[in-house]
Write a structure and sequence with these properties.
7-stranded antiparallel sheet, globular, alpha+beta
Length: 138
């Protein structure tokens, strides 16, 4: 059942916070890697090369899990479970450039891609949590 992203979830996703994306390998084992994440309304956007392992996993099994931690306070987090509902071509790098602006403050520097796509994720669960712990590394 799709869920609406609340204000705290939107705030963490809209900031340049890295997400850990979990996809499923052919044998069912999880594969996790850091990704940039964007948002379009209540949908999450992940731009990647469709020919990589992540892309092949998402084409085969649409289920995903994401964890987003605040860059300044990793005890503030969003946990998402959902599925890919759409795959869009992004060979012109429109979405990737928008994400690059969010994370790097400039267009994406590598321009040669042959199979760029954007996976649109609909959340079934999107839970925000802020721990009372304080991030005070020594």
């Amino acid at each position: 059942m799709p869920t609406t992203l609340d204000a705290d979830v939107r705030r963490l996703v809209d900031a340049p916070n890295f997400a850990a994306l979990s996809t499923l390998m052919p044998d069912g084992s999880p594969k996790v890697e850091p990704v940039w994440i964007g948002r379009e309304g209540d949908h999450l956007l992940i731009a990647t090369d469709s020919r990589g392992i992540k892309g092949r996993n998402l084409e085969r099994d649409k289920r995903v899990a994401l964890s987003v931690c605040d860059f300044q306070n990793p005890y503030e987090q969003v946990l998402v479970r959902g599925r890919v509902i759409e795959t869009r071509d992004d060979n012109d790098l429109v979405v990737l450039d928008a994400l690059s602006q969010q994370y790097l403050g400039k267009p994406f520097p590598r321009r040669k891609w042959s199979s760029r796509v954007v996976y649109v994720v609909e959340a079934d669960v999107a839970r925000y949590y802020k721990s009372p712990l304080e991030h005070t590394p020594t």
